[in-house]
Amino acid sequence: MATPICATKLSVEVSDDPRAVDFPQLRALQQETAWARDRALFDLQRAIAASDLVLTAWIGSTLVGCVRVLSDFVYRAILCDVIVHPAYRRQGIGSLLVESATTHPRLARVQKFTLLTATAGSFYRRLGWQEYPGVGMVWERDAE
User: Is residue 135 situated within a structural domain?
Assistant: First the structure.
């Protein structure tokens, strides 16, 4: 595992090394969610490979959280798939991941961070995020 870029009192280490991603553990985490439960392992691997930044949170050798970021590194960055292991939720790991993403040196020039969430708005509001109503649009491909 890479040298941690951030650590907490819970002995959580955050790594920005994409080689540190443990896909079986990450897939198991996603199966605990309603929004990522049906994702295939191959697609998860492709998504991680195509992400501009991937941060993983670890307690020892256990993957306890992850966030992906897509960015142009100047104007916009989109946080994707912020996820924390169910046994470790409400212990600051999600906050640590979001803060680690928004303060990451590679994203230091980004003017605006965005994300989509249908269920965690109150979590992000506590971190200082604001609703962005009326300007967003989305197009979704029909399920195959």
Answer: no
